[in-house]
Amino acid sequence: MKNNYNSQEQYAHYTVNEEKPLLEWLLSNIGGESRSKIKATLQGKGIKVDGKVVTQFDYPLQPGMKVSVSKTKRNNDILKSRYVKIVYEDRYLVVVEKNIGILSMAAGGRSLNVKAVLDDYFRKTRQRCTAHVVHRLDRDTSGLMIYAKDIETEQILEHNWHDIVYDRRYVAVVSGEMEEDGGTIANWLKDNKAYITYSSPVDNGGKYAVTHFHTLARTTEHSLVEYSLETGRKNQIRVHSADMGHPVCGDVKYGNGDDPVHRLCLHAYVLCFWHPVTRERMEFETMIPAQFRRLFK
Fold it and tell me: Cβ distance 1 to 18 under 8 Å?
């Protein structure tokens, strides 16, 4: 079962492997949803079989048929947040697209954070779980994130992250015209006392960091660059971009003041992993933000 997601097509796709009436099949295959919610999705024309909308609950399914289940008709009507959108959910984990301006988790005081938004959503949908942070995005970075729903799933993800996540890509608008079409940056990253991360070509007691980059588009002022992380260090892309002489636009910490769209121009847009429990291939991709694309029209 492969789950594809992009912003235009908010459906999870499943392949049927047994003969069953549609509602019965949905109840046994769609995790984390109540019976009433699944029925409401069916009545609300949120289920497709082989590309056609079906509302008949006893519609006979045959092995090999493709079932598509709408995301928006299931969870984002309950989760009303301008900061967080659920793109996939099952009984073990949830994949969200985070907006800029929200922390991944609480950090001192009552700050707005994704974990709190999800915990509130779980309460409203009567799910006995809480969101467990697995990896983080900076407050002003947008994009895809995984949260586990129980400590067992969180532990599997935490201890096997590099084996489980096989493709994680970001896209950024950087300052200036990139000279190279692609390449790799590798060095050691370490924080100073002011929590500024700095790099060194030799071991400075920090952590070794490897970033692969690929230039997607360029003008004389800006470049659109895809970054693929081999290591996930704090501020890695932002520091490595600045190292290349092309800092991420809108970066107040490592940038050069170039701020064409009044935000940090960094977005986590591809996230592919082996499901920590079912071992299925999970692939998610969001659109490159429109504000980024406009600069390269």
Answer: no
CB 208 within 8 A of CB 186: yes
pLDDT tens by residue, the chain, 297 residues: 444 444 345 778 889 999 999 999 998 888 767 777 788 788 777 899 998 888 888 999 999 999 988 876 555 556 778 899 988 888 899 999 999 999 998 887 767 899 999 999 998 888 899 999 999 999 999 999 999 999 999 999 999 999 999 999 999 999 999 999 999 999 999 998 888 898 999 998 999 999 999 999 999 999 999 999 988 888 999 999 999 999 999 999 999 999 999 999 999 999 999 999 989 888 888 989 999 999 998
Q: Are 146 and 135 in contact (CB under 8 A)?
A: yes
To the query of whether residue 243 is one of the catalytic residues in this protein, the response is no
d(CA 79, CA 259): 31
Note whether 254 and 235 are within 8 A (CB). Answer: yes
Q: Which residue has the tokens 């006979």?
A: 60
From 120, 138, 150, 259, active-site residue: 138
CA–CA dist 277, 137 (Å, integer): 24
Token digits of residue 44: 């609300």
